[in-house]
Amino acid sequence: MKKPYKLMPVVYFDNYVLRTLKKTDYKDMYDYGRDPEVTRYLSWGPFVMPSEARRSISQIFYPRIRHGLPIGYAIVDVKTSKMIGTIDFHSKIRGENGAEIGYVLHQNYWNQGIMSQAIKKMIEIGFDYLNFDLLRIRHLKKNVASQKVIEKTPFKFIQKEKYVLEKSNSILEDEMLTYELTKEDYYGSQQSQRNL
């Protein structure tokens, strides 16, 4: 039986490419993962040592295959061949044929529309290639930049709930905002746009 999550397609858009994360990407991951601004609203970071990035790839990303999920995508700047972030289906949605998308991007590449485009590619991959019925994406309320990214995609706001993020050197109390998109809604809106 074919297991598509083990061999993910390479996807190009503008001057960027999504390709499966490699263990050798750890130096580029450390480069943005050590930035406190980049990791402020994430459950991990900032990195202090490059070995933390290497461990993240081998112990967090690679084991996903065992759970029926892709390893995750590196977002690569084609001009420099540098990995500038990741986007991935990091966990399955309990009780549903679906997954949650997570992402992070090097600060030098913020506010250029890169992540909104990457998310749209992930929607196509999730529904067309991995055959999910439901996709979810979330952000902390204080992470306004992430909210703006998600609002440029077809995801619909579902709910907000209180959330406490305990990091190694701080505790962040906030609200977690959840957005979802079903395959049915996505293709229904695509069809209606074609009929206009």
TrEMBL record:
<keyword id="KW-0808">Transferase</keyword>
<feature type="domain" description="N-acetyltransferase">
    <location>
        <begin position="16"/>
        <end position="184"/>
    </location>
</feature>
<keyword id="KW-0012">Acyltransferase</keyword>
<dbReference type="InterPro" id="IPR051531">
    <property type="entry name" value="N-acetyltransferase"/>
</dbReference>
<dbReference type="Pfam" id="PF13302">
    <property type="entry name" value="Acetyltransf_3"/>
</dbReference>
<protein>
    <submittedName>
        <fullName>GNAT family N-acetyltransferase</fullName>
    </submittedName>
</protein>
<dbReference type="GO" id="GO:0008999">
    <property type="term" value="F:protein-N-terminal-alanine acetyltransferase activity"/>
</dbReference>
<dbReference type="InterPro" id="IPR016181">
    <property type="entry name" value="Acyl_CoA_acyltransferase"/>
</dbReference>
<dbReference type="InterPro" id="IPR000182">
    <property type="entry name" value="GNAT_dom"/>
</dbReference>
<dbReference type="GO" id="GO:0005737">
    <property type="term" value="C:cytoplasm"/>
</dbReference>
<comment type="similarity">
    <text>Belongs to the acetyltransferase family. RimJ subfamily.</text>
</comment>
